[in-house]
Task: structure prediction
Amino acid sequence: MCGIVGYVGSKKAIDILLEGLTNLEYRGYDSAGVAVNVDGKVQLYKAEGKLQNLKDVVEKNYAEISKSTIGIGHIRWATHGAPSIINAHPHTCNCGKVAVVHNGIIENFKELREKLEKEGCTFRSQTDTETVAHLVASKFAKTKDLTEAVRLATKEIEGAYALCVIHQDVKDTIVATRRNAPLLVGLGENEYYIASDVPAIIQYTKKAMYLDDNQIVTVTPSSMKLIDIDNNPIQGKIETLPWEPVALSKMGYKHFMLKEIHEQPDVVRNVLSGKLRAMDEPITLKEVTLDKEKLKNLSRIQIVACGTSLHAAMVGKYIIEDFCGISVDVEPSSEYIYRKTITDKNTLVIGVSQSGETADTITAVRQAKAKGSHILIVTNRPDSTMAREADSLVPVYAGIEVSVAATKSYMAQLISFYLLAIYMAEIKGSMDVNELKDLKHELIVLPQKIEKVLAHKEDIQKCARAFSGSKDFIFIARGINYPTALEGALKLKEISYINATGYTAGELKHGPIAMLDETMPVLSILMKGKVYDKILSNSEEAKARNARMIALTDSSDTKLNELFDYIIRIPEISEILSPALAVVPLQLLAYYIAEFLGKDVDQPRNLAKSVTVE
Ligand code: AGP
Result:
């Protein structure tokens, strides 16, 4: 969603702001803007649409703008008010001296706006953010101190925010603060960077300080001061950021999504590394702090997540129930939070999130935490808000994922669930020792099988070409691959905008079969195992209604050739581990269809990489 970059130092601020915003583009946005200070005057530049539009505006005035060594920038994903230049950030107060960029939602903005209008403020936009600019200006008028003005303003603001503020009369100073929205400060040589996420600054510095909720930081080229909302000084913790700038390069691939799909064999190796050491050694998950006795006595597990992470959670349910015999409920976080939270200290609540910043999942785990449940977070971002809520953490180590469509993070989540389920089964003694060994061996050789699928991507490309004209798509599966069907359909719809739906194959004849005719492709996920024959029968039923049939299978049965128009074959794999292999061709299928259709693969319309509003 929205993204923030700030800079104060001796370099041309505009270059750093635009580069930083470029590296946040993947988050999804609809307008962009910057504020700089040229010859003692705050100047704003904004544009609707892609960042290139803002770059074009800046280009025309570059000589002037590049004089500034301080600035704040923003990409906006509209919440209050349409995407437009007027609503784009930064926002200013009446006199234009205060400029503010903001991520999040100011919940009491209407009350604040009414109050400020009575005091004489004139609002130009429909945004909630503009209230902050006026509020800070009103506090500054009384205190003549920007940090104090921001501090007093945050006392009146309700909701979620990461804020970055400059004032024309307070030379070379940025004040930034956060509540329920991420923000960090990057440290350079006589310069500071502010960012809502690491990619914005990683090419400039690896030294950073994450802000906690209600902390306020004031930076100048030569100083950094951190206080809490009650004005107590705080000693911030400086960390070394774990990423390399190269993570933000496409490395020769046409899109980040394709690059990230190809990274999956290494992602599996990374996730297993240090946790699965040998087939006869137990799994180690050092950040899982749940007491072993408590783990043995767990009565229930609840998993909350959204989107692709929800599909990983559904696979997680299947394997934890299978390996450990503990009942697992999976629910979209956005549903979990609006009904009675029935959980307790004997229930383990697992939050799954690539970004660790998904607002609904954060709220869900907080609600469960308040009821005394142990909170285990599975995330790709151990530096995220959700990770900070965790009692136990399973970092998935997929590396930064730039494409909005999640691929390698899903793989990392799946593998983490296998490790977690085995870890729990080993503590509970609920799984046969030989079965465990076989599974561990299969996990170790999984990267090679994924590599084989990737090596035959031309077959999938051909299939994609053949079906790229379809308006609708149905994916069917049963059991552990039902989530794979949902994930395949989600990938396809989010990047190609084709109406794709995943069904349990058994449900087909309870309604969806009515839609079948020669215009409707049906993709059957047919992995060898206990539901293979059943899905085959369901596929026959679909074929009898003239649907165009695609099989995704690890079977070499030549009889399938009669039933299916197209067969995507993958290496043999045990049914229990098959979701981790079967998803790869579906990611590629979605990718190639979207590419044939000329869609914006990495930044699909209307979507944001991390959904930080409920
Ligand atoms: C995945 O392709 C999606 N873009 C989306 O569904 C995503 O998985 C969802 O928003 C959850 O995000 P999270 O994993 O960061 O919590």
In short: Residues 306-309, 353-355, 358, 361, 404-406, 494, 607, 610-611 surround 2-deoxy-2-amino glucitol-6-phosphate (CB under 6 Å). Residues 433-455 form the longest helix (23 residues). The chain is about 35% helix and 25% strand.
